[in-house]
Amino acid sequence: MAEGGGSLPVAAWLSALHLDQYVESFQQSELWSVWDCRALTDEELTRLGVLLPGHRRRILLGLQKAFVEAPPPAGTQQPPASKPVPMKRHIFRLSAATGPEQLEPRCPVGCRPPLKFSPSLSGGSPEPPAASCSHLPALEDPSPPALGEKPPADGRTRPPLPPLPAKRHQLETKCQSLKAPPLPDRPPVLPPRAQNHSEFKGIPSNGFLWFPCRSYIYQKRWVKLDADYLRYFDSEKDTYSKRLIPVSSISRVSSIGDQKFEVVTNNRNFVFRAENDADRNEWIRTLQEIAEERKGKAPERTLMSLATDSATELANKSGFLELRGFKHKLFVVVSEDKVFLYKNAEDYQLGIGITYIEMNVGNVKEVDRRGFDLTTPYRIFSFSADSEQEKEEWVEAMQQSITEALSNSEVAERIWAVESNRFCADCGSPKPDWASINLCVVICKRCAGEHRGLGPGITKVRSLKMDRKVWTEELIELFQQFGNMMANQFWAANVPPSEAISPSSGSQERRRFLIAKYREGKYRHYHPLFGNQEELNRALCAAVTTSDLAETQALLFCGASVTCDTGDPQCPTPLALAERSGQRLQMEFLLHNKTSEPPRLEMVCSEEKPYSVHLPSITHNGFLYKTPSMVKPISERKGPEEFSRRWCTLQDGVLSYYENNRNTVPNGEIRVEEIVCLVNNPLHAHGIESTFEVYTEADRLYLFGLESPDSAREWLKSIAKSFVHPCAEGLLALDFERLGRLHYKGGLTLEHAQEGWFALVGSTLHVCSEDGCRQEPLQLRKLQELSIQGDHEVLVLVERRRTLYIQGERKLDFLGWVHAIQKAAGSSGDTLSEQQLTESDVPLLVDRCIDYITQCGLTSEGIYRKSGQNSKTTSLLEALQRDARRVRLKEGEHQVDDVANTLKRFFRDLGDGLFTRRWAPDWLWATALEDEEAKVGEYRQLLAALPPVNRATLKALINHLFRIQCFSGENQMTTHNLAIVFGPTLFQTDGKDYKAGRVVEDLISHYVEIFNVNDQEMKKQQDEITAIMKMREASSSGTQQAGDFICTVYLEEKKTETEQHVKIPATMTAEELTFEILDRRKIVMKEKDYWSCFEVNEREEAERPLHYSEKVLPILHCLGTESYLVVKKQMSMENMLIYLASRVGDCKHGMMKFREERNLLGLGLSTGFHDRYFILSHSWLRLYKEVRQRGWGWSHKPEKEWPVRNLKVYLGVKKKLRPPTWYLCCDTQADLREWFATFLQVQNGGSLWPLEHPKMRVAQPQQDARLGNISLIPLRGNESEMRNSVAAFATDPLTVSDPGHWMALHAGLHPSCIT
After folding, report:
1. Which of 12, 61, 406, 444 supports an S-S bond with 310, CB 3.0-4.6 Å?
2. Measuring CA to CA, which residue among 692, 681, 743 is closest to residue 716?
3. How far is CA 222 from CA 280, 326, 725, in A?
4. Closest Cα to residue 318, out of 194, 190, 405?
5. CB under 8 Å to 512, separation ≥6 — which residues?
6. pTM over 0.85
7. If you average pLDDT over residues 481-500, what whole number do you get?
């Protein structure tokens, strides 16, 4: 501190530390200057009201650094040397003068000998032993400053500061070896505390500026200025910045001409360029005001730097990580509730970062052995660590950061006020945020997981930050008085050093130690009365009347009974004695140990016994209305007279109900491990307002109720939390209607059923497997099939990409699930969103009717104008609304006019209408616009404003009417006639005003423009219509279902014995066709089998694997006579998936040979092969004549470019393709595979293979020295052998040598295919 700094006012000093909220408390304690605070200790700060440990550490560290060399003010007597404030055990700060020091062995908390056995403790807790680590060498980064940044003109550098604090369990490895890159001398400037933003009112804080990037070429950036940072982004829509500069480091802002200005910081200079002089001057003025504001606080500058240094103690973890999208490793810092990204260690040292991530919206998920994803609503950050252990440490640090961001630490801060409670009672980890409320020990997260395994009879685990309800004032006081030290004086009095655990101990080691410590009582301090039950009980009755908690603990866990007979009729139990004596803490301790089991050595579990996770112990009580238990489903409404009021308690894994709250013997009990399902009934389902049902393994049903919905919800959450396995705890956050466990089979693993947890929320079924993997929810209204098989024992749910078989082991519970799922999968109302839907969000009822009329009624005269029979229309509409999946419209059974009338009545009776009441008037108003372009534009805007289901339904209907009017010469239904019929129907009017008809007429007439229909879609629709008409001409009568088409599909190769004649519905996908063929031949898909459907040329000159989601029927309509479909293994899929998983970015570029066949005067002329440079992005394939770059962009336009959506990709050479056709040749098989995989990924939104079984489908790749996990084999040969490329690609790509690898690009076909 500068001379005279001790007289600095305490208000200014605390303001520099960003702790202004404590000024009043300091001044009330007569602390007016910094010198007055020199003797403050941690306990005194707590009494002053500084409850947060981070704030206390910042103040003490600031005082320590301020007075380390500063002489006292003149005339001030030097105070005696005070005992230094102990640092946290996991923090080691070394000065440059400190030499290497031998690391002392840690003495665990549990190994310390007890100071006293029975009397209460009066002294403070012992200080942890000091530990030190060899000083790491300073990191010298020779890399030049980033572009756009200049070193300070004066050349000054900041003095070195102590190295980054290390965790205690990292010292043994990191302090003894210096092979890893050393950390920088100075930690970063972490985010400053929230400041008073009023000082920036009226100051512009964002706008576009130009910033020099590579080669000093200026690029436009969106710049934001707030109270903490000056940041710039690629665009104003970005959430995460490209660079952030702390406002506190800005010292000067100056103009350097040419609309440029320079921001000078303590370390670097940044140059920006504005659009004009006015904008530049405005930015300069704004930033200068901030700089002047900082200069006005110059006296506190030294203390501010100390405050910044103390803030670095908050860094939880830091180090280098690989991030997908960046070429080099980034320096990542996890600090409290944020994650900061830095380009390198030097930037971290200077405090100039890339961006930071708020962890309150983050989620961490492990991806592979070394990789993990940090997912936010705005972006997914894919990190990769150097080792699996390092990855686990990063994941744990980020999960703790998320918990910190979402939790409330008030209870933790109060309990941590006791010194011994700041470290885990079992392993010594700092800042433990879990506790055992019956043992009165504070423990870390890893030990808490092992505590749960001991069961609620041994230890009852709760979170200090999340289980707020359990932490009563008495329980908090109990932990403050008891503390880890008193508990360990009993439980860990005789721990051998060889058996003690540390923060780095593994799960098995922790489990073994905790079993010995708490279940067996191996290390406990035995009470002198141990073994004499009568004397133990008598001593307990005497101890509970005093404040000696240690004596009560020793007696209780040495065998005294908490419910022993006291011999006093008025106070028959020790709890009653404690209540009469006014010992609140004794009562609290006895209540939490009412069902605790004393340690027993004979309870030792063998090593061979598998370890099982016990359910958490939840406590809840109150009055509930209850009916007698039942063995049959509830079929009718229960009246209020059928309910009885009972006092119910949920404690220690038992739900008990009593006659009243005074009875001690329950009328009945339900053990939570026997609960299999919990049902939340709708309001007023019975005579009591809110009711819920509990199903047990014994096939009994219990109905409970409450008049208050909020109280019923609390009971539901408590019961659910007590019986749901921890692996499925994510389902507890859902507002479920039904929650429970069932046995099911899914996907390709159908040999054995597995147990899973299911939650029904509305029309969505959430599934969590027994290993804790959360599966993609099932949208029940979009199911393709819902049926019961095997004598009502299996419920089959068929979705587009997977099939789920739910087994009914318990009849009562299974019937409840069946009825609930069937109800949720049906139509629940009269609006579009409440109907059963297809994958494209079109109501299934509308899709069924349109398909039937398209196949059977396109040429029917007067279609939609002629009315069908009213009775048949009514019954058909009711059947479709009840369950459209079960209705199959067949020619001969259903008349075209009846189906058409059903569709019209559905739209007329629609609740909110197709155009919705909100937007219908705007659609009618748009008809008055005279300019056709303006009218079409208005229609497109109104279309975008509709809900997704309405928008998809309107497009499907208008597309259907567009097809109808194409046959107006036969059906007499022109666009005008269709508008007259459907205008009043869709707008639900009386038909007197023709505006409704004009809207429909405009939509049909401008169908292509309004709905953005391209030529490929139009051609596809025309091909479908042509195929349907050919079918009707070939067969004058038939009974095929709507949309079905029979074709021949081959298995593996085209032979007579491999033919399969399959009926292809309009909704069948390539994946479903593949499974259909495999099921017919009884072929079981094994691991690493990638069976796919291929479109193959007759001469086997080219083939194309169909994407699993492609509809088969349109492809059949487009096939020529020389093509067919075959189902076979796609041998290259595994390698393509591995390649896509390892690649960075979503585009590809490189050299390929290119040949184009042009159609000149009807002749196909080849231009020969030429080397060209290709760039494949998510929307375009561009061809460049040569590689020529300037800065970041290309110096010339591409020679050719094609929309990716309009391309089909064939493997091999196919001469029969119509021009324009382009041929691309790759040098190696691997190059061909990578290009082809990228095409598939881009055209299908990143999905190559169904995600249902990713673990089974990804195999271990062979290592290759050239490109990591991607194996490459150089192939040689002559060009005449290029036709063998198809066969080569279908075999093992690692064993086949082929001279050339070709792809044929064909434009002009429908966009759902890939070329």
Report:
1. 61
2. 692
3. 14, 21, 48
4. 190
5. none
6. no
7. 90
